[in-house]
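Entry type: protein chain
Record version: 2
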Amino acid sequence: MERLKGILIGLLITATAGYTQQTWTLQDCIDYALENNIQLKRQKLVSESARNNYSRSMIGVLPSVYGFANHDFNSGRALNYDTYQWENREFQQGNLGIQGRVNVFSGFQNYNNIQQHRFLLLSRLEEVERAKNDISLNISAAYFQILLDKELLDIAESQLEVSSLELEAARINYQVGNIPGGRLLEIESQVAADEYQLTLAGNNLNQSYLDLVQMMQLDNDSDFRIAVPEKVVINEGAAISTVDNIYDEAEAILPQVRVAEYMLKSREKELAVARGLQSPRLSLQGTLYSRYSELAVNPVGGAEYPYSTQIRDNRYRQLGVSLSIPIFEGWTTRNRISNAKVSVLDAQYQLDETRQNLYMEIHQMHNSTTNSYNRYKSAEKAVAAAQEAFNHSREQFGLGLINFVDYQHVQASFFRAQSNMVQAKYEYFLRSIILDFYLGEPLAIR
């Protein structure tokens, strides 16, 4: 027993080294991963870029206005705009003004361009939600793996404890001459094998902890251990919804479907933009202009003619309408429309494929959940039968009615049945909460 205590203490220290202070629930692990996952942060940047493009598309409908100013130093023969005579001298002159242009109609290109980027933004936002769901599901699977490995470690500890007690009794019987030395060696060999299995179980638990820590992108030096529920119990009366019912709910709420739907709408608007290139384009434009010159003569007399007065006197306004009708652009518009049609068709295929994959995924999960439950119920019966067989064989072995090989076989069958039941239990439990997640329920240990 002292040897057993030493092994258990060593495994406990190893399994919880660096992870002994803070207790993390499943929701804590998910929240931390969503806050620190680098891939998710990058996906958010993609959505921010799409938001900027959407904002830019809306700004594109505003008029374009710009100002200009020129000031020249002239030398030689030049035209005097006040007298309209050519003069040979040095002088300065300039002009300034403001111009504006607004698109009135261009085949609804601006509107469709805005809608294209709006749907693209919505698709990118849904991709962020899909990434969150993937991270949450992966964290949940890793969390349940730790719970499973903990119970398997408990089973290995129980198995070693039983064989260690038998070894102590065998040593006493050997000392008084009740059993031969060969039987003692057989029991010692079994204890060594159980110690090995316990070490493997502890290593598996350590690896599962490491997997979860790395998946959360948590510092390995951080104190970490998960909150273990008092007892994970399967709800015997819980009914599993049909595949079609689960799919109908999942299709309406899961982001991967909406990603494909919004992308299809974006591609349709992209096609509308391309078709708009075939439409005439109508725009309004206006100019406010003025000029000044050192050669200018004051029209009211020989007084000085300041630049500011010239600018006021020479103001010029222009308002115009521009109409552009596409006739031939080297098949550029035609090719763009053709490519946009291909993009729409591809987006439709992606949506169909997404729905098909979701249905198959749900069908597979539904089948696996049912199989896990049936396997659990069978394993539960097997444990009950193996428990009785083990208790009976243990009594017979103690009385010397069966040999150690037969007893060891019954004992191994009992602990193997326990391991099978635990594995089936957690497989069913994880798959059932994933099905609930498809129905809109949060990922939680219920």
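Comment: The two ends are 37 Å apart (CA to CA).
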